Amino acid sequence: MAAPTAADVDAVVVTKPLASAQDAAEVAAFWLGDGGANLVNAAPYTVRDAVNPPLPGAVITPSGKPGRLAPSLPSDSAPTQPDGPATLGKVFFIGADGQPHWCTGSAVNSQYRNVVATAAQCAFDTQTSGAALDKWVFVPRYTDGTAPLGLYVGKQLFGHYDFDVYRDFDRGYAFVNVYEGVVPSATGELTGYGRLGDNVGGLGLAWNQPLDYSVNVFGYPAGPHPDGVRPYSGQNLKMTVGSVTTTAHSPVLKGERLLPVRSWFTGHGAQGSSWLLNYDAASARGYLNGLSVSVADADGNLRYDTGLSPYFDNELLAVYSAARVVWTGAVPPG
User: Fold this and answer.
1) pLDDT tens, 112-167?
2) How far apart are CA 279 and CA 239, in angstroms?
3) Which among 60, 67, 162, 255 is most buried, taking Cβ atoms within 10 Å?
4) What's the pTM?
């Protein structure tokens, strides 16, 4: 993988602290305490989760050669997940309204096996300039208030300057470094659970890809279609498959070269859904090449049918590259 230059990183990357080592145990206890009550009661985030039908977008000229970073495998002791990637899960946080919320997130291969990708609005506080969302955690394969593969507290957020300053969803991606996982013990205390990548592995990453490919979209959609039909509960990982062949423009998202894909996911909970290139069901591995930032009803039949993602280019690579080399460590006892 060719590393971006220091000038590339300085030009586009912004970083924000999420939780200090001293605060991480308190954050984990907030979500895991009382039998995971705050996890159970969290609502899907609804910031920009659905938009009007998109318009034709601008032509994309890749900023460099197509590239890929290979997926990583979990340790031999990691439990298998036959119904989809164990790298997928939910990110939980306190929203701008002060209430617990969640989006979809995914573990990505990195040097210290500690990086999570999601939509930018699921990590940046879009209501407060320069702020990140509070009490941010990742729970791979979240199930009914439990963290079967551990809960991972966010330490550091990396994103793009244009989203942080202008709310430009062409740059609507975020990468978060997380501390080592924790689980509650029989006595309710936090017990260390090891590194995220050791437990679930990590997705690969692809960038500067030509627009003629198929992706498997994984996420936790919830909420209704515009006609009121509610096909998803948000409790189970779902998948759709679609082709990426063109670009889209959404004025409300300030996005001029978003990627549309045919997808039936409803908006609530779908933000951060992973678009996987060359997904292999046998190994549950693929290359992250998109992240849903919103959905739309493109044909006007009151059913969402389109997911929208930023295009992954050299600037995406610069943001990821800044996050991939950050060490985090374990959550101190607390």
Assistant:
1) 999 999 999 999 999 988 899 999 999 999 988 889 999 999 999 999 999 999 99
2) 11
3) 255
4) 0.95
